[in-house]
Structures are given as C-alpha cells and as structure tokens.
Design brief:
The chain has about 110 residues and is mainly alpha-helical. It has four helices and two strands. Among the domains are: about 30-70, no CATH class; about 75-108. It has helices at about 10-30, 30-40, 45-55, 75-105, and strands at about 40, 65. The protein is elongated and about 80 Å long.
C-alpha cells in the first residue's frame, strides 16, 4: 500500500499555526518585555553624575540617571495576531469548560 501524501496546503497551514502559537506564547510570557528591560542601564556619564550628586548631597532620583530605549514594534499584523489569539483562547476555554461539564453530568 502506498502511504497517502499530505496535502501541501495542510503542511503550510500547520507550519503557520505553529509559528503563530510560538509567537503568541513569547508575547504573553513577557519575553520581549524582559529583553527591553535588560537594555535599561546606567551610562558612564550617569554614574559620574550620580556620584557627584551623592557627594554634593543633592536629592537622588533613579529615573534621572537611567535611560530606556523603547521601540514600539506593534503594527496591524501583531494587533491582528493578538486579537485572533485572544479569540482562540476564549473559544478553547469555553469549549473545554463545556466538555468538562458534559463529562461531569455523565458521572453525576
């Protein structure tokens, strides 16, 4: 018997689905937020300014010595992916809840 070849459409669809799920998980887990947070650092000039302020007894505010380079990479594609992901999540959550309710009703 010949092994039935998979339709290339389903292969591409499966690959895109796996890509979508991995990007969605990376977004929701805070991977990108952690990456941006690591870029917050004190520069040499900020360190010298901080040391001078301590020597002079000036009030210290951490925000005046750090810099945050924040790039907003959101666009229509990422917004659509987040929207679709949240809809899939709510659909799956309600579906699983219904399945458990049906199973629960069978045993009670």
């Amino acid at each position: 018997m010949k092994k039935k070849d998979k339709n290339p459409f389903f292969k591409i669809l499966s690959a895109l689905f796996l890509l979508f799920i991995s990007l969605y998980i990376a977004l929701e887990s805070g991977y990108y937020e952690a990456k941006v947070t690591k870029k917050t650092a004190m520069t040499e000039e900020s360190i010298k300014k901080f040391e001078n302020d301590i020597k002079n007894g000036n009030p210290i505010d951490v925000n005046s010595y750090t810099y945050v380079e924040h790039h907003d990479y959101s666009n229509n594609t990422t917004d659509a992916a987040i929207f679709i992901g949240s809809k899939v999540e709510s659909f799956m959550s309600s579906g699983i809840t219904e399945i458990f309710n049906i199973v629960k009703s069978l045993f009670t």
